Amino acid sequence: MSAGPAIRRLAQVSVNIHDLERATTFYRDRLGLKFLFAAGSMAFFDLAGVRLMLSPPERLEHDHPGSVLYLDVPDIQASYGALAARGVEFEREPHLIARLASADLWMAFFRDSEGNLLALSCELPRPA
Predict the structure, then answer these.
(1) Cβ atoms within 10 A of the Cβ of 87, count?
(2) What is 12-57+66-125's CATH superfamily?
(3) Pick from 115, 117, 104, 109: which is nearest to 93 by CA?
(4) In this structure, which of 3, 22, 125, 127 has its CB flanked by the most CB atoms within 10 Å?
(5) Which of 40, 28, 42, 8 is nearest to 86 (CA)?
(6) What is the chain's pLDDT, residue by residue, as a tens digit (128 residues)?
(7) Is residue 26 within 8 Å of residue 5, measured between CB atoms?
(8) Handedness of CA 7, 52, 78, 112 (dihedral sign)
(9) Which is nearest to 66 in space by CA: 34, 114, 110?
(10) pTM above 0.85, yes or no
(11) Neighbour-count burial of 42, counting CB atoms closer than 10 A to its CB (0-12 exposed, 13-18 middle, 19+ buried)
(12) What count of other Cβ atoms lies within 10 Å of the Cβ of residue 80?
């Protein structure tokens, strides 16, 4: 078996959009992501070293909501409250997804300005 390429990390995620200004405002101003640059009909943000690219679909068969982005936060209740105050509309309040070995996994789902599903994700350690 050949060694193949050494894939080290996720470098970039692309999210379909239809309105660049509206989507940029949502990700920059409502979610508070670090805006990197715009190029043509695309905008780029930094998520701790992973680039998020917002762009219109290049072909009709690619014109659909993208994959779910799970955004890790240290305090899901505080993040939920802060984003809701900025106008982010959640599908429901943060809720328990699973009890892991040493933590509880909580999530809260919402949609961006283009209809793409996103989620806050938080692993809350359980007291020993």
Answers:
(1) 10
(2) 2,3-Dihydroxybiphenyl 1,2-Dioxygenase, domain 1 (3.10.180.10)
(3) 109
(4) 22
(5) 28
(6) 556 666 677 788 999 999 999 999 999 999 999 999 999 999 999 999 999 999 998 888 778 877 889 899 999 999 999 999 999 999 999 999 989 888 999 999 999 999 899 999 999 998 77
(7) no
(8) negative
(9) 114
(10) no
(11) middle
(12) 20
- 3-state helix/strand/coil string of 48-117: CCEEEEEECCCCHHHCCCCCCEEEECCCHHHHHHHHHHCCCCECCCCEEEEECCCEEEEEEEEECCCCCE
Amino acid at position 57, single letter: P
Terminal C-alpha separation, the chain: 44
